Amino acid sequence: MTPADARFAPGDRVGVLTAQPLDRALDYAAPEGGCRTGDFVEVPLGPRRVLGVVWGPGEGSFDAAKLRAVSGVVDVPPMRDEMREFLSRAAQYTLTPLPAMLRLATRSPGLGSGPATRRVYARGTGEPDRMTNARRRVLGVLDEHGGLGFTLGELAQMAGTGTGVVKGLVGHGAVVEREAPRDGPYPRLDPDLPGKALAGDQAEAAEALAEAVSGGTYGTTLLRGVTGSGKTEVYLEAVAACLRAGRQALVLLPEIALTAEFLSRVEARFGAKPAEWHHGVTQTERRRAWKMVAANGAQLIVGARSALFLPFADLGLVVVDEEHDTSYKQEDGVLYSARDMAVLRASICSAQVVLASATPSLESWANVEAGKYRGLTLTSRYGTAALPEMGAIDMRAEDVPPGRWVSPALAGEVRARLEKGEQSLLFLNRRGYAPVTICRACGHMIGCPHCDARMVEHRFLKRLVCHQCGESTAVPETCPSCEVAGKLAAVGPGVERMAEEAAALFPEARVEVLSSDMYTSARALKARIEEIAAGGADIVVGTQLVAKGHNFPHLTLVGVIDADLGLQGSDLRAAERTFQLMRQVAGRAGRAEKPGAALMQTFQPEHPVIRAILTGDEDAFWAAEAAQRRAAGVPPYGRMAGIVLSSPDPQAAFDLGTRLVRAGEPLRRIGAEIFGPAPAPVARIRGRHRVRLLVKADKAAPLQQAISDWLARVDVKGDLRLTVDIDPQSFY
Ligand code: ADP
Ligand code: ZN
After folding, report:
1. Whose CA is nearest to atom 5 of ligand 1?
2. Over the stretch 512-558, which tens digit does the pLDDT of each residue have?
3. Whose CA is closest to 315, among 252, 230, 253, 373?
4. What spacing in Å lies between the alpha carbon of 445 and ligand 2's midpoint?
5. Structure pTM?
6. Helical pair 152-159 and 163-171, crossing angle rounded to 10 deg
């Protein structure tokens, strides 16, 4: 790799990588004033100007006389060597073209444009004619913290007044308006403010992490501990050590609805809020975050998986909270696992990684067993909170009328909580009202016109929605097949229907549904979760959204409506996922002083996974699961790649699959096996027919190289599309 300080004189041939869908860097002439490797530049491409990065010297094959010049160097810090190396290695690992990787690293609005300003309000020299309480508060805020000034909204909010009060003070000269650069540094976080007093295994774990971070070398630690055992408190001490060392920290969360709670914890610990990076953040804030991360004006970033591609000036720590969460795997565009890429990025820039989870992935568990990761375990819940009592409700012995799902046993437990003024959660991992709509006249089930999937009724939206492609239609009056009116019936439960049942069973209770599709914005969802956590509902009906680490201090009962749901799939991780999900959901109960209980409705209480959940013997579960996977040679003890072929024409997709199998010599050479072609479990999405191949290899086999050689032998033309998913997590 060319070092970042390689300079090019004006007119020198340089290779510029853009995020355009090309397969390599293009040659340009260095601009007036020259440029360096890593510089962000604008280059002409056809009739347009696009953003790119100087990747190194040009290849030299393009006619020098026709070489176009770089239009200009963008005024941001150049891309660091380690970032170029990270992108290159991530591209090789995921078999993604480098430009697509670069696109992830340049997702900042207005990167190329000059610094924008914004209007801020600061203390002026004048005094108001008359002092009111509201005015005093505004001036108080400015006197106390107001050096650089605040936006109108910020200032009014901090002073707890309307914006009119601030405007009024401008009239008197007590407050002045001015334009200030928008992309200012974030407030300093102070690692030396006192944290919570840690004791016992918390203190030991915090110390071990802090020491590793101060060492300034690469390492990965799996931090295990049941929900509420204080993992967050512990890794905040690793963040403190990182800030003390003057390096930057990144905390990844699986769900942006979790960030509000985390931001307040950071503020309580370090005296200010960190920078945020996820799709719920405004464009201007994203731009500021990107620039400040590069300029070392942001010490801590809290974000979604894409924050891994931010241009850190000096990244010293990455925390992946709830590391087992499936949302860390990006399932469209570039298929990458943020957990694995965090480890790669950290190993390149000598940073520490902390993977935190109550229910780690088998991959991480196995890496600890193999000595690749360090393992730290917090053994008990913090304070008095005890782990919930786990129990099964044998549905074979319960009398539940058709169209109802809450057993009398579970209903009795909910009633007991209502009487004590405590919260209950009814958990069902299915969005919408009912998964199937069937015509009682002809038996037709309403499906998506573009996908091999049933339309799911969302009564709240008054629509039928396809969960594969998002297609939606109004709920019809008549059957689309036999045209008989009034015979369409909802079959099976979704959370909306559960809420209806709960309201019928407990008319006096306040019932709330918590499902991502019922809120128009991440902000609205966050706000609602906080209200519920504060006691704003008696019964919460929720999807896996609630399993993800929210604190519900009044919640003392979790009722799992269908514990068997996840066990049905043929997915290799079905048992692992069910185990994790059930343990996570159960962990929602009894987090404060009140003890909790978790009850699972199941038709197979003797199933090994259900038994493992009930007995809580995690290590036994993991060991048994590991033994099975090792015997089958599947991840994490073997490697897999999923290949999806799609086309509007089913035969064409299948034929491509057959050609690929015939051309499979490069795979067979490394001892890999090819399975398929077979119709994908979801055989059609958005009108495209889908066929899958599965490649399975030994753990040590050079899988990516073999796949590249293999795919190079087969033409994928016209309407055909091929995607490669290394280490697939889903098999739909
Ligand atoms: P986890 O991340 O493992 O779910 P948290 O770090 O969120 O656990 O801790 C659970 C609760 O216990 C939080 O409200 C946290 O503030 C509190 N807590 C944990 N450790 C301590 C401590 N040492 N002192 C005071 N409160 C603590
Ligand atoms: Zn569809």
Report:
1. 230
2. 998 877 777 767 777 888 888 889 999 999 887 776 667 788 888 98
3. 252
4. 14
5. 0.84
6. 110
